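Support request from a user on the community tier.

User writes: "When I paste my structure tokens into the form, the page sometimes reloads and wipes my input. The last time it worked, I copied everything first. Here is what I submitted, just in case something in the input itself triggers the reload:"
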């Protein structure tokens, strides 16, 4: 799928759907992937209470993989050598936001940035405004970020991310 000019960066797909990057198994595009990404935010308030926000991607269905290596930087994660895994319908997405201030009620919100309740499987509606992808770091062999409008931090512009293809 990709070979750098100096052959130091290689991404292969075998006929059975297995994807390997630099000799390490990434996933099989024909099966539900075991790849998981999650991010949690926790803040404890003085005098009691907390704010907890969770994002989670699991049961990954792969739409396509861009095998060209990227340099990825964000406030949350970075990599000098990663690939983009585009998600397909049927991928499980969870968002939860819970706030409790001492003496008050627990306020829970499970509606994602599109207003839909989670956990849920991504459907065709989710792709009308663009792709949703996972950033897979080749060096660490793990998913480091969820690049999507469903990611609260990018949707609300609290954080930014940059993708640069490596030549």
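"...and here is what came back when it finally went through:"
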């Amino acid at each position: 799928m990709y070979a750098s000019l100096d052959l130091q960066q290689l991404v292969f797909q075998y006929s059975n759907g297995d994807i390997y990057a630099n000799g390490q198994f990434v996933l099989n595009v024909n099966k539900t992937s075991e790849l998981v990404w999650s991010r949690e935010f926790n803040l404890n308030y003085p005098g009691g209470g907390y704010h907890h926000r969770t994002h989670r991607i699991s049961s990954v269905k792969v739409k396509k993989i861009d095998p060209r290596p990227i340099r990825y930087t964000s406030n949350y994660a970075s990599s000098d050598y990663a690939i983009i895994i585009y998600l397909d319908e049927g991928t499980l997405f969870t968002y939860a936001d819970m706030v409790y201030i001492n003496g008050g009620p627990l306020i829970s919100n499970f509606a994602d940035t599109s207003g839909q309740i989670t956990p849920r499987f991504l459907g065709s509606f989710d792709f009308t405004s663009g792709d949703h992808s996972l950033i897979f770091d080749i060096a660490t062999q793990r998913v480091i970020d969820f690049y999507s409008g469903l990611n609260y931090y990018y949707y609300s512009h609290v954080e930014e991310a940059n993708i640069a293809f490596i030549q």
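Agent notes: The reload is a front-end session timeout and is unrelated to the input. The mean pLDDT is 94. Residues 152-155 form the longest helix (4 residues). Escalated to web team.
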